[in-house]
Amino acid sequence: MNPWREAWEASEEGVVLFDGERVRYLNPAAARLLDADARHAAGRPAAFVLRHHRLLELWRSGGAAVLTLHGRRVAVRAEGEVLFLRDETEAARTREALEQERRMLAHEFRTPVAGLASLLEVLATEPEPGEAREALELMRAEVERLARLLRGQGGERARPWRLEALRARLERFMPQARGVRWQADHLLDVDPDRVYQVLVNLVDNALRYGRPPVSVRTRPLEGGGVRLEVVDTGEELDDYERLFQPGRRGVHAAGVRGSGLGLALVRRLARSWGGEAYGRRLEEGNAFGVTVPPEGAREDDDAGSAG
After folding, report:
1. What CATH number matches the domain at 157-299, 3.40.50.720, 3.90.79.10, 3.40.50.2300, 3.30.565.10?
2. Which of 36, 142, 223, 292 gets the highest tally of CB atoms within 10 A of its CB?
3. Which residue, among 55, 110, 48, 106, has the nearest Cα to 78 in the 3D structure?
4. Do residues 83 and 18 lie in contact, with contact meaning Cβ atoms separated by under 8 Å?
């Protein structure tokens, strides 16, 4: 075996050599990407081996393109009598996953940054000392939460605490949430930071896309555990589950700015503590919420604090 052929046999990049209108050689990587039998490819017409009109065009005219071949994303380059194929499927998935993480993080920072900006405006008005201290404390707590988020911390079990403990914090950073009704009578012992992230996204969605009044409430689950949900009185939606897919938005969101990532983030957070996220139609309107398993929730008989 000549050294070039030996290298091609071991290469992860596909190589196809041609002799006129026929295939002269096909290495194992190319055979996998083309779903062809390398042992019987030599001498066969190129059209029978390539079986893809864009591949045939590239081979004949030269150039490069990214094609989908048998479910794989493949970068193709034609140089003279040689066709090179490189499988980029996993690299593309990695890039897509990284980009989705970037968008998720940007989405998660949007509301806190807006809240910090509003508190800075309060401080710029030279408020009373007590108000200034309160604003600084809220800013410090939120910066610490965002730092934990960036470090990937959180998720640990907490001492039992009341959901109502997050109300002031939410309303300070989302002034539009001050009209939201609260009916939360259960204790939770899942990470307050993560529950806060869930509430920010669910309340923001209800205020943007739903119809008032909006309420935050907890309800017992059959078999134990709790539903934590945000309810608005908007019209029934066609497909609740679809809205949990990243980037998907309902027709009710037309004309309203948004990324379509909020509910996907809510689902990921709920699953991090062993729960699930859902949307459903109730008699009074639309409910989007999360479940908290029995070990993370109980009746509010001895209220704690979210700290």
Report:
1. 3.30.565.10
2. 292
3. 55
4. yes
